[in-house]
Amino acid sequence: MFNVSTRVQYGFLALLALADGDGKTPVRLGSIARDLHLSFKYLENIFQSLVKARIVRGTRGPEGGYVLERDPRSLSLYDIFRALEGPVFTVECFDEESACRHLALCPVRDLWGELRGSLEKFLKRRTLADIKSKYKKPVVLAHMEMFGVAGEETGKKESASI
Amino acid sequence: MFNVSTRVQYGFLALLALADGDGKTPVRLGSIARDLHLSFKYLENIFQSLVKARIVRGTRGPEGGYVLERDPRSLSLYDIFRALEGPVFTVECFDEESACRHLALCPVRDLWGELRGSLEKFLKRRTLADIKSKYKKPVVLAHMEMFGVAGEETGKKESASI
DNA sequence: CTATTTCCTAGTAAGTTGGTATGAAATATA
DNA sequence: TATATTTCATACCAACTTACTAGGAAATAG
Ligand code: FES
Ligand code: FES
After folding, report:
1. Which of B1, B99, B134 shows the shortest C-beta gap to A90?
2. Is there an atom of ligand 2 within 6 Å of B112 CB?
3. How far apart are CA A94 and CA A120, in angstroms?
4. Do B143 and A103 touch (CB under 8 A)?
5. Closest ligand to A16 CA?
6. Which of A24, A43, B4, B23 keeps 20 to 30 A from B138, CA to CA?
7. What is the pLDDT of residues B98-126, one digit of tens each?
């Protein structure tokens, strides 16, 4: 089965939030989590993988946050999958431990190879910049509107209503 | 992540074993399990799904076994995936319960749609007959040789060596 | 009647997914 | 220097999926 994990879905959305900015001023996870209605803790978890893969760079403390470390035009969906999920495509026949991997000529093995190839080709072709430029409106803003949130970015912590 | 489950791998291999035959005389799971070095019980489990999906038909008793119920030229890899794994592609954004599914215009949502499309297109294009005809040698025979098994189909239960 | 083979319903151990919890380390600001 | 803020690091957990196994009922050829 092919499942796009929530790690990838949320991570990708959050990366678009970084790409929406000017690329210089760090974006806090707190604001992304609020805007996209996602778990802050889970986003932190996800972003540690992105840091390790050198896709983003974080700076701590007040005025801290994350910036993209790679050019969105060369940052592919494949890179993001690899950073967040590890291997993109698995099949027993390709594993070291598999009994059948020594059969040189096998149409079934070839089939899995082609499937992997087609999948990777798709993922490598799409970059963060491609997706971002697909519609005029910033993606994060669009999702905020979906939740009926007013776009107050530096707002005063939505008032002390508790 | 995309994982081709062992259900699909083994099931596909076993279907090729049926396709290797004349299409009339039933093939027993016992012989397939022996030739491909797979678990008989697991194959039974897998074939129940194939029966339910009307891909194969079984007849019980001695001289029983399975035959293909569908033409290999129209039996696609997609059909086999569906029968054995259920949904081929899942992503939260497409689910009923997902928070974001009501956003009409979303480049990210479009991206997942394209990914699904590309995957399904690949799987629907390949048929059992295609793969079978890719090499001259029957696929099952090739795998048997890999295990160093002599091709004795109706053999005498590999002698009472226990 | 008996051996053989599929059919059917369960169950289960290991791995993956989708998160939480807790606290340490760094840093801007006062 | 003290403090609030933010990332960094490690560990944990519940629910779900995967990859099987178990035990027997039902059909059928000889
Ligand atoms: S060699 Fe792995 S399926 Fe044929
Ligand atoms: S609507 Fe689901 S990701 Fe945008």
Report:
1. B1
2. no
3. 16
4. yes
5. 2
6. B4
7. 888 877 789 999 999 999 999 999 999 99
Residues 6+ apart with CB under 8 A from B89: A1, A2, A3, B115, B116, B119, B120
- The model carries a pTM of 0.91
B82: which residues sit within 8 A by CB, 6+ positions away? Answer: B53, B88
How close B62 gets to chain A, by Cα (Å)? 31
* pLDDT greater than 60 at residue A149: no
Write the pLDDT tens digit of every residue in A95-113: 988 888 877 789 999 999 9
Q: Which of B87, B102, B115 sits opposite A122 (nearest CB)?
A: B115
The Å distance, CA of A18 to C1' of D4, is 24
**CA closest to B127 among chain A residues:** A111
Query: How many angstroms does the Cα of residue A154 sit away from the middle of ligand 2?
Result: 24
Q: How far is the CA of B107 from the C1' of C23 (A)?
A: 38
Q: What whole-number distance in Å separates Cα of residue B13 and Cα of residue B140?
A: 7
Query: Dihedral of the CA atoms A41, A42, A47, A50 (nearest 10)?
Result: 160
Q: Where are the alpha helices (DSSP H) in B37-146?
A: 40-52, 77-85, 107-125, 128-132, 139-146
Please state, in angstroms and rounded to a whole number, the distance separating the CA atoms of residues A106 and B132: 10
Q: How far is the CA of B151 from the C1' of C17 (A)?
A: 43
Answer yes or no: is pLDDT of B56 > 80: yes
SS3 label, residue A68:
strand
Report the alpha-carbon distance of residue A65 to residue A25 in Å, rounded: 8
Calculate how far, in angstroms, residue B143's C-alpha sits from the geometric centre of ligand 1: 7
Map out the domains of chain A with their CATH numbers.
6-86+127-146 (1.10.10.10)
